[in-house]
Amino acid sequence: MEGNRGRRSVGGFLLCGELNWSKERSNSLIGMRTYKRIAMTMVLLMGVAGAQTTTSGARVAITNPVQQEAMPFNFGVLVQSGVGVTEDRGGFTFFMAGIHAGKVLTGMHGQGMMRGNFELAMEAFPFWQSYTPTSLRQNCTVASGPFGGEGVQCSAPFRIGGTFTGMSITPDILRWNFAGTRHFAPWAQGAGGLLWTNHKYPAFGGPPITSTAGFSYSTPGDNGPNAETSVWNFTPQFGVGVHYFTRANRSIDLGANAIHISSASLGDKNPGINASVQFTLGYSWWK
After folding, report:
1. Which of 16, 185, 190, 219 is 20 to 30 A off residue 124, Cα-Cα?
2. CATH number, domain containing residue 165
3. In contact, 230 and 199? CB cutoff 8 Å
């Protein structure tokens, strides 16, 4: 951060001009670019799947491995994208790409529609990005004025927010695979993960005196130099989805996850993202 450049104070009075919220890019353009990536990936995966469903013009046998007792491994690649859906997080969008690795640990259990098996899995996203609105912020501290009393010194305005890049890992995915049909095998899961970003996420504070926490000469509120979040966040989540088997032991995977992002107060502030909805598209190999 640009820190405390351009400090200024006059006695017990705070001098600060009006600062307006601004955006690094239009939210609509962010969404368009994000979902364009999803569409291009989907076309690529569909092409791969289509090429594998036919060999020399003959129909390839389709087997749903979830219905078997072999307890297979599941390896896949996937992309994930979504939006924030709570409070003031509607302008937050996400895009990431990574891998899935899982192992079915049980045979088939249950009756009727609930019949299925249990899979323990992990996912890693070495490419993770969040696109957020930007704003201007000032760091303000309390200091003695030149004629006695207290005054407030503020840094020059600097920009916060924008694009955050990082990596995410979800090491403990607990998934129930439903037996389904010859082509389809639905699933439901609960999971918890860890997120690292190249800057403290999400951005916090500003314009100069925010109305959410107030301001006093003894407590600079949301504009103090320590009013920061963390580069580490936790991602508890719940999701549902379906495997669509295009041939024996090959599937296109569609899913939807509700994800909470929070630092658990590792930073001085913990605004977090109470909820985001993120959709996944992947391709899996079952061994």
Report:
1. 185
2. 2.40.160.20
3. no
Cis amide bond preceding 202, omega within 30: yes
Bridge partner list, 12? none
Rounded to 5°, angle at Cα 30 from 38 and 44: 15
Whole-number average pLDDT of the chain: 79
E-strand ranges in the chain read 54-55, 58-59, 73-84, 93-104, 116-137, 140-144, 150-154, 158-178, 184-191, 194-201, 230-234, 237-247, 250-261, 273-286
33's enclosing H/E stretch is helix 27-52
Mean pLDDT of 146-158: 71
Any domain includes 199: yes
Q: How far apart are the first and last CA of the chain?
A: 49
How far apart (Å, rounded) are the C-alpha atoms in residues 90 and 198?
22
Tell me the residue length of the chain. Answer: 287
Strand 54-55 relative to strand 237-247, pairing: unpaired
CA distances from 267 to 259, 263, 282 (A): 20, 7, 34
Domain holding 82, by residue range, is 27-286
The answer to whether the beta carbons of residues 208 and 220 sit under 8 Å apart is: no
What tens digit of pLDDT does each residue of 215-238 get? 454 445 677 767 789 999 999 999
Q: What is the per-residue pLDDT across 78-131, written as a single tens digit (0 to 9) for each? A: 999 999 998 788 899 999 999 999 999 999 999 999 999 999 999 999 999 999
Q: Which pTM does this prediction carry? A: 0.76
| 190 or 45: which leads in pLDDT | 190
Nearest 5 degrees, angle CA 108-CA 110-CA 113? 100
Contact indicator for 150, 210 with CB cutoff of 8 Å:
no
Assess whether pLDDT exceeds 80 at residue 151: no
In a domain, 112, yes or no: yes
